[in-house]
Specification:
mainly alpha
């Protein structure tokens, strides 16, 4: 296995074994979803990422969700574009964005981009359902899943596999032949 794959599996296992609260897990997942759906490289994404770091959100849950939803964002971008176009077509939004862009950091928010604005709106709409669903999942199943993972020593096995994958040369790279 590749070290990145093992590290990703270990992060998922640590979500259940780490013993964090269901609220922190759900909040981290919802914020990670928002980061994942947003196009990167603008001040809006940086502010949301900073909020994740500045709050009690679970960083592992945020990281897993951001990775999942960054991958899924390629399919939501057409919807985000249509949603952003509809929002930008509203006269009240146009005057607000003109005021925003008069501020020194306003243009860096990229809220004039239909995909950025649509992704932000979409992620805000989906945040509460995602939060509630993940909260229910962790509230009801975290203890059972953690117990099973600890019975099989999954965290220790993955830690050993991660070390081994980093130390041993990869057989799939063809260097040893």
């Amino acid at each position: 296995m590749r070290p990145a794959t093992v590290a990703s599996l270990r992060t998922v296992v640590s979500l259940f074994i780490g013993g964090g609260s269901a609220r922190a897990m759900a909040f981290g997942f919802a914020m990670g979803m928002t980061i994942g759906l947003m196009p990167k490289g603008n001040l809006t994404a940086v502010v949301i990422s900073t909020l994740v770091l500045a709050t009690q959100a679970n960083l592992a849950a945020a990281g897993v969700a951001a990775a999942l939803f960054t991958w899924a964002a390629t399919w939501t971008d057409p919807l985000a574009h249509r949603l952003g176009s509809a929002i930008l077509a509203q006269p009240s939004c146009q005057t607000s964005l003109v005021r925003l862009y008069e501020w020194p950091l306003g243009p860096w928010t990229a809220l004039n981009n239909t995909v950025v604005l649509g992704s932000l709106a979409l992620s805000l709409v989906l945040s509460y359902p995602a939060y509630h669903l993940v909260w229910l999942l962790f509230h009801h199943y975290q203890a059972r899943i953690a117990q099973r993972l600890q019975e099989y020593h999954a965290d220790k096995v993955l830690a050993g596999a991660e070390v081994a994958a980093r130390l041993l040369p990869s057989s799939s790279s063809g260097k040893g032949k």
